[in-house]
Amino acid sequence: MPYFDAASSLPLHPVARQAFLAALEDGWADPARPHREGRRARLLLDAARESAAESVGCRPDELTFTSSGTRALHAGIAGALAGRSRVGRRLLHSAVEHSAVLHAARAHEAAGGTAGEIGVDSGGRVAPGEVAAALGADGGGAALVCVQSANHEVGTAQPVAEIAAACAAAGVPLLVDAAQSLGWEPVPAGWSLLTASAHKWGGPGGVGLLAVRKGVRFAPPAPADERESGRSPGFENIPAIVAAAASLRAFRAEAEAEAARLRGQVDLIRESVPRLVPDAAVVGDPVRRLPHIVTFSCLYADGEALLHALAAEGFAVSSGSSCTSSTLTPSHVLNAMGVLSEGNVRVSLPPGTPAAEVDRFLAALPAAVAGVRAALDAPVAADGRAAAKADAGEAGAVAASVVVDSLGRPCPVPVIELARAIGKVPVGGVVTVLADDVAARLDIPAWCALREQEYLGESPAPVGAAYRVRRLS
Amino acid sequence: MPYFDAASSLPLHPVARQAFLAALEDGWADPARPHREGRRARLLLDAARESAAESVGCRPDELTFTSSGTRALHAGIAGALAGRSRVGRRLLHSAVEHSAVLHAARAHEAAGGTAGEIGVDSGGRVAPGEVAAALGADGGGAALVCVQSANHEVGTAQPVAEIAAACAAAGVPLLVDAAQSLGWEPVPAGWSLLTASAHKWGGPGGVGLLAVRKGVRFAPPAPADERESGRSPGFENIPAIVAAAASLRAFRAEAEAEAARLRGQVDLIRESVPRLVPDAAVVGDPVRRLPHIVTFSCLYADGEALLHALAAEGFAVSSGSSCTSSTLTPSHVLNAMGVLSEGNVRVSLPPGTPAAEVDRFLAALPAAVAGVRAALDAPVAADGRAAAKADAGEAGAVAASVVVDSLGRPCPVPVIELARAIGKVPVGGVVTVLADDVAARLDIPAWCALREQEYLGESPAPVGAAYRVRRLS
């Protein structure tokens, strides 16, 4: 049964499993102890550090193991900010970072610091010029810039080398969150701090990496202890660390050939989805991207329902839509990109995915989307483009303007009601949608772009907002 | 080769190994995902939580898994303090807690809170009346009290139920660090928060427990995420969690019988060491104690050298002496107890330790101590009691008072020089030792008690301190 959620977590790599079992025998003791068992554990830990440092491209004494990628981000951000608190207390990060960065930014603000977001284009990409502008010639009081190497939801790769040059010119350290890319691609040059997470490359859960370049000011967050250079408190899980390092090496050895193969499958999905599914849009940078992640959104579809429909066909995928995974807001990534969030599906292919599985997925997708839309009574005709006019014909009466009250209705209902109403006004007429679901702010403009209608903007309303759309065709 | 450092870490329990391997297949996905792989991981996590909660004696929704016992303490202390910050910002803890508690206390002070230590008797035990006195009738502004169930260095069990009653009477929550006892003994009643660490009971590294009773105010430290009730951020290591829970159950099932057996071996060590080794003292409460830990100190011996001498004989033990594990100060536990720290050895027996190994250890110990003492030219004669007089005879000249300059000399040299000098004064005469090694403050009074000489106290000196001793015999 195809598992297409590799960006979330991968099963243990066979090499990781072997390394883990071998390290269980010698890696359970406290590596800080001078006795035989402690020294054996220390040898394993040192060897894993050397191996991982080589994969990362840093010195072993620059690399520490944390208990997760999230912890690596939390410690890296807090440590770099504290180390430079005399210079400034401003944290800059892209708007599409992992939520752990956003949480760290909120904690920094709560402690009296400031945080600023650097926006992205509709492909999810940061412009190096915007980083340079935010920093100015002297850094502008920034203590740290955080940018991921590639996005976890849409696969867009960031221009890390250019961003690093901008940071270096302003004298501000750059933290690169390499969680999604480290297994796949060489780490771009120029980082000051780098973080990653082992279960993204077939290592076990419970292991993150935090590398801090020599010379970067760093004050480990308290409470600390003497383990991992004071940067990651608590007893080390050495068998897991050994497995993580071995798996990183093995994964990267296979990555180039596998990336070329998966890139072909991802290209097929990117090309096929708009053709096979009416009113669907592929999101993320079309060229500068990870090899294995592709994301698309489907008008008039509920992301949660679509996940379940695909799961019923045996496909494990992920979604950044609202109403999924106990959240009621669309993913902050899709939000920052300003793209359609409803009916969102992320496909992230594990190494070894057979082409036939992708073919099966593409074969099953149209019916899955159609089923979800039908359950919502969505206005999609067979050719996907005739719906509005068909509605208009059925409605009979035509008014110059129509107000649709979607207050209290969750995504994707406001967009569905907009699509129904557009046929009730003449070309040139205006539909106003009253909605309080937060996804409407993203999805109504996206609907206009997809359906080639004119988005006139939103205005405040007593509850929620009023979104105005002019019918163009 | 005997491993007697169980209180530091244990090899993986066979049940933990089996559980780990079984959980590897189904426990690698993100348990927050709704797909099949995610749901399988969630089922394993839920089952592990139920099992561990039953072992702890709490509800599953009161229990969260952390990435170590240290992290459980850090999060538990910070969360409880933040949850009660309107009531008060004072943290009270015993003077013999795990260093993670002391680190959390320092971090709390750095953030503007206050911390206070509750002292222990020479056996390492907290008096419940002292807790009650520190809290007063209304808690005295205390937000939290931290007391371990049993000490990790000397094995002393704390009167947790009585301390809990004192806390309850004052309306202050009690955090019990059960890291050393949870595998061995029922958890004493009355705790508000409880922490533990899986690698102490044959679980893997990388898993701690934090239980917070319903109704206890708790504000998780930031940055947090949505995992583990917001109390432990980062991707869960589910196979390790499953192994930890299975191991706790298996360890406890064997604990009662095994504790009775090991208690006999520990009693044998406690009884034998003072008989076999001249000028050695067993430390820790003689009765109210863990079954498997015994600690003693040896006059005129360097703890680090003694560890190595025992390691050369194949025995892996631990030490709270200064000059071990890269620290230059004696263990804060021995310090708080006011007992001899030099030549300190902790023996902590793993389950299944054969009696013959303990016999071999007792047979090897006297020569190991004697070898270390000989290397330091320590004044110990064959019967261990005649040294001072023999020295006096050889010295010939006798002065009414002598000053020994041990400035710049590390432990155990100041005590060795004191022992040599005592024979140079007549009975009633005074030896003054100038020393700047911090262990001298602990070890000179302890020497006086062991050798039945009179400790007159210390006074400040330009460097270090002057310790005065009157010869009584």
UniProtKB/TrEMBL annotation, chains A, B:
A Pfam family recorded for this sequence: Aminotran_5
InterPro entries listed in its UniProt record: Aminotrans_V_dom, PyrdxlP-dep_Trfase, PyrdxlP-dep_Trfase_major, PyrdxlP-dep_Trfase_small, TusA-like, TusA-like_sf
UniProt entry tagged with the keyword Transferase: yes
Keywords: Aminotransferase, Transferase
GO MF, one annotated term: transaminase activity
Catalytic activity of the protein: (sulfur carrier)-H + L-cysteine = (sulfur carrier)-SH + L-alanine
Cofactor(s) recorded in Swiss-Prot or TrEMBL: pyridoxal 5'-phosphate
Sequence ranges assigned to domain UPF0033 in this UniProt record: 404-428
Highest taxon listed in the record's lineage: Bacteria
Family: Belongs to the class-V pyridoxal-phosphate-dependent aminotransferase family. NifS/IscS subfamily.
Protein name: Aminotransferase class V-fold PLP-dependent enzyme
The species this protein was found in: Streptomyces boetiae
Lineage: Bacteria, Bacillati, Actinomycetota, Actinomycetes, Kitasatosporales
